[in-house]
TrEMBL record:
Pfam families: OCD_Mu_crystall. Homodimer. Binds the thyroid hormone triiodothyronine (T3); T3 binding inhibits enzymatic activity. Coiled coil: none annotated. Transmembrane segments: none annotated. GO terms for cellular component: cytoplasm. It catalyses: (3R)-1,4-thiomorpholine-3-carboxylate + NAD(+) = 3,4-dehydrothiomorpholine-3-carboxylate + NADH + 2 H(+); (R)-lanthionine ketimine + NADPH + 2 H(+) = (3R,5R)-1,4-thiomorpholine-3,5-dicarboxylate + NADP(+); L-proline + NAD(+) = 1-pyrroline-2-carboxylate + NADH + H(+); L-pipecolate + NAD(+) = Delta(1)-piperideine-2-carboxylate + NADH + H(+). This is Ketimine reductase mu-crystallin. PANTHER family: KETIMINE REDUCTASE MU-CRYSTALLIN. The gene is CRYM. Belongs to the ornithine cyclodeaminase/mu-crystallin family. It is an enzyme of class 1 (oxidoreductase). Its EC number is 1.5.1.1, 1.5.1.25. GO terms for biological process: thyroid hormone metabolic process.
Amino acid sequence: MANPPVIIWKDEVERLLRYRELIPRLEVALGKFSWRDSAELIQPVRTTVPLQKHDGFMGLMPAYMENDGVLSTKFVCFYKREDGSTLPATQATVVLLDPEYGNVKAVMDGEVITDMRTAAVSAISAKLLMRPGAEVLAILGTGRQALSHYNVFMEMFSFKEVRGLRGLETPVSGPVTACVSVEEAVRGADVIVTVTRCTEPVLFGQWVKAGAHVAAVGACRPNWRELDDVLMKEAVVYADSREGAMAESGDIILSGAEVFAELGDVINGTKPAHREKTTVFKSLGMGVQDAVSAKLVFDQWKARHSQL
Ligand SMILES: NC(=O)C1=CN([C@@H]2O[C@H](COP(=O)(O)OP(=O)(O)OC[C@H]3O[C@@H](n4cnc5c(N)ncnc54)[C@H](O)[C@@H]3O)[C@@H](O)[C@H]2O)C=CC1
Ligand SMILES: O=C([O-])C1=[NH+]CCC1
């Protein structure tokens, strides 16, 4: 008889998940994904159910890593939400299963996992694609993802200046230059992170310095945008999953831009990192990122509870 599933709440996930352990595991998983070896890893494009009445979507994000014995799925609800709404923009739960028996081993909060693994993958994109000596980081958005991106970028890199729109200085715990407009925030920036709920372009190519790296995290629907056509066409575009980007990214579909490579291709050495050019990393989020994070949380949880 299988043990009943454990439930791991948000505060415990927060205590257990650390970027220094998460990032190397995500890099390995991104690389495995890009080999497209179904004996190693299976991750279909997320299934999305529209919640029309609530202006949102429920995404189902399964992943199976055969050799690692990891089977999981995330349920994530995400909403358009008007500015000023007090309702959450994203809510998620991750379910970890035993691939042999099919029983649920753990049900855990997916909000912290979503915040941290998304920011960690953006940081990996910057590590691979930004120019050496990058000094100025701009973060567009002041919500949950803005905070997790701030935290991991501060942990991994040493920028001389971080700029953001007014409001970013409230959640973060370090110095931020508050800017009155997107243009002011991004002009001259070496790395730009877009973590907004925008459905129309907010970042325009004419403001972006040649050679900058953009990690574009919002706009995860085929008709939503954060970046304009000029930027999308000028930049070398990378994605987490090519299939995900072609199915879900308005910035890619509507601009007609081509996905040059996945981050995993760069990690595997099968595609180059064009650090010298303007680069866009289009992030949609992947079930395998959640699977790796959930396994790490569960392993840490077991280790901690076996000592009690
Ligand atoms: N790529 C991925 O893996 C993931 C993407 N997301 C997406 O990331 C985005 C941010 O998510 P959260 O931080 O959780 O949401 P949030 O609601 O906490 O923050 C959203 C931010 O966008 C800002 N915003 C809205 N309209 C704007 C505009 N026109 N100009 C500038 N800023 C604007 C809001 O003021 C707020 O600061 C969402 O689009 C969400 O769907 C979320 C999770 C994972
Ligand atoms: O990967 C993810 O969890 C999400 N991507 C877009 C909204 C939520």
